[in-house]
Design a protein that fits this description.
284 residues, alpha/beta, Rossmann fold, eight-stranded mixed β-sheet, 46% helix, binds adenosine-5'-triphosphate, binds magnesium ion
Length: 284
């Protein structure tokens, strides 16, 4: 293992502090609703008085800014190139939500080199104590670095829509994570359903497919109905739970948030994180 990789491993281990949770939002197929979910879920947690940091890791193609209708001067890219701290690049959103923009401009193809990631994690570690939840909107596609980051997280939420292509890609993503020893708790959110029944059948299909190759449980965190309010909110650059709090998708987010907090209170997810990290990294 290279020095760089060893250092990264140590930093990832340090990210585990009792009391906070690191959550990654991923998908197989792009465009299934990760950014909208990440943002609205983060706001919903903030409304419930949780301290949340949302990180747009779709580097160079960040969307959180656009969804919020804000323009930020600094993004995650600036922590790589310039001598800035994580606090310098944090912005305040609705209900005191802290977020870091992913930046735009495609000149960032090497942004997530191991050295950059290491620097970033160092900075993130400094800020960890302030937050109850750190949510990563991972963007589409998986790199080696993405997998490394995911393997440090407490929970990974895989998003899909009911479309067979998206479900297949969600399955492929889960398989890829499991084969790469990502041992975070896996949950799925099924977005854009037209009926409860449709969502349940997607969950069943995924569960069966996953059980076929591995003993991994895929927890259904929730479902979000397809509703034109989401597109309208995107166009007016206002998160849908704020624009239309009583709409179906907003109520779905609220339900997901409550379920999430409820499951967590039962201690279902966090206790074995450090153990998993150790097994994951120290055995190799
Ligand atoms: N529940 C929903 N109902 C209706 N439309 C939706 C819903 N969720 C998402 N959409 C539509 O899908 C679009 C893409 O959503 P979003 O940008 O959140 O996806 P993404 O997974 O982050 O995409 P990418 O992979 O490019 O990062 C939205 O702009 C909206 O038009
Ligand atoms: Mg996105």
């Amino acid at each position: 293992m290279s020095d760089q990789a060893t250092k990264l491993r140590e930093q990832l281990l340090k990210l585990n502090k009792p009391g906070n949770k690191v959550i990654g939002i991923v998908s197989g197929k792009g465009g299934v609703g990760k950014s909208n979910f990440s943002l609205n879920f983060a706001i919903s947690l903030s409304q419930k008085k949780k301290k949340v940091l949302l990180l747009d890791l779709d580097i160079g193609m960040g969307n959180i800014d656009v969804l919020l209708g804000t323009v930020t001067n600094l993004s995650i890219i600036d922590i790589f190139g310039k001598n800035l701290t994580i606090r310098d690049i944090m912005n305040i959103g609705p209900y005191g939500l802290n977020y870091i923009s992913g930046g735009s401009g495609l000149s960032t193809i090497f942004a997530m080199s191991e050295a950059n990631l290491s620097h970033f994690l160092n900075e993130l570690e400094d800020a960890m104590d302030e937050f109850d939840y750190i949510i990563f909107d991972m963007g589409a596609g998986v790199s080696e670095q993405t997998i490394k980051l995911l393997s440090a997280m407490h929970e990974v939420i895989v998003m899909t829509t009911p479309e067979p292509t998206a479900v297949m890609d969600a399955y492929a993503m889960i398989k890829h994570m499991v084969l790469n020893q990502v041992e975070a708790k896996l949950s799925i959110v099924i977005n854009r359903i037209s009926s409860q029944k449709e969502g349940e059948s997607v969950h069943l299909r995924l569960e069966k497919a996953v059980a076929h190759f591995m003993n991994v449980e895929v927890n259904l965190l929730g479902m979000i109905f397809d509703d034109s309010i989401v597109r309208k909110a995107v166009i007016s650059q206002k998160p849908f739970i704020l624009q239309a709090p009583s709409s179906l998708p907003s109520r779905n987010i609220d339900l997901i948030c409550n379920k999430y907090l409820n499951e967590e209170n039962k201690g279902a997810t966090s206790h074995s994180f450090i153990h998993r990290m150790k097994t994951l990294f120290l055995k190799r």
